[in-house]
Amino acid sequence: MTYRHGGNIKEVADKFGIDASAITDFSANINPLGLSTSARQAITDGIDGITNYPDSLSSAFVHALAGYHSIDAEKILTGNGETELIYLIPRALKPKRALIVSPAFSEYERSLKLSGCKVDHFLLEEGDGFAIDAALLYGAMEKGYDMLWLANPSNPAGILTPKKVILEIARRSADLGITLVVDEAFIDYLEASSMKDEISSFENLIVLRSMTKFFALAGLRIGYLFGHNRIIDTLKQYKEPWSLNSLGEAAAIASVNDEAYIKESLFFMNGERAFLLRELQKIEELKTYEAAANYILIKLSSGMRAETLQEKLLKEHHILIRDCGNYKGLGQSFFRVAVKARGENERLIKGLTSCII
């Protein structure tokens, strides 16, 4: 029972005859606090506006992002979720050969191949805790690539690469004529590590961001990226109009302006992530990896396949985890769980204990 991505509640519910509302979803890494109250109010207040076309340039949201991130508005481009932008980049920039730091989000490879790009993978090693061996990556980068993709924190491993390392990768990419795409979908929990402030220094750098994870707006599909003016101008030529709907824009603006929600989310996640990691590490049959965001990569050391565990948890406890067997570079014993609220995290621990031991 391997699914392409997490969060496939309806598909799972239909397959196993379970009421979708009864499933606790640990497969998608969404802020367990839900959307902010100000975002909810903005959606309600904006409902009558859906009879009109949205602003095709998302000008109000871009302005809000410029203030929130202290970035020039000309260096920001919004999209219908980060995924639209993932597909836009190769379509517009037309790379011929790309390198992906893996394991990674599968849509990187798919978007590149659909644009006729040859794709290779720089596989991170389990023995290194899935951290980037910078020296080895630098060597790989010299083999004729014109685009490099990596996520920070990585997904599904959750490893944060120090900003100084990403900066050196950006410098070497610039020297080699490589466009560097850094996916920061989960960097909101570690904003100081973002490469957003380096956009003006590197014409070859693109930084992807998402409103899905931290701001819990997955169903509204809101993403954006930062890039040098030259890159932004090129991407705009290939981008469809009206990709951001008016309710999504209203919710996104309210979200980035809600300072209390942002502070609460950071405080909450720091505590719950530490709690869940600590409890998982008490289960001898599990090996956990360093977690920097709101999810944890786990390996079964008992010989059980993650797919088997996934089915047992669903049938016996109505808990859905992310089987990571379809990630390039990971085996059938790996799975990922989101960090959720205390009661849900405790249910997960009990479920895992009963299904493994």
Describe this protein's structure.
The chain is α/β, with parallel strands linked by helices. The protein has two domains: 9-35 and 260-356, Aspartate Aminotransferase, domain 1 (Alpha-Beta Complex), CATH 3.90.1150.10; 37-257, Aspartate Aminotransferase, domain 2 (3-Layer(aba) Sandwich), CATH 3.40.640. The protein is built from twelve helices and 13 strands. It has helices at 9-16, 37-45, 59-69, 81-93, 106-114, 134-141, 163-176, 229-238, 246-256, 259-280, 306-317, 342-356; strands spanning 24-25, 76-79, 97-102, 118-123, 147-151, 179-183, 205-210, 223-227, 286-288, 295-300, 319-320, 322-323, 334-338. The strands form three sheets. It has a seven-stranded mixed beta sheet with strand order 2-8-7-6-5-3-4, with helices on both faces. A four-stranded antiparallel beta sheet has the order 9-10-13-12. Strands 1-11 form a two-stranded parallel sheet. The longest helix has 22 residues, at 259-280. The model has no long low-confidence stretch (mean pLDDT 95).
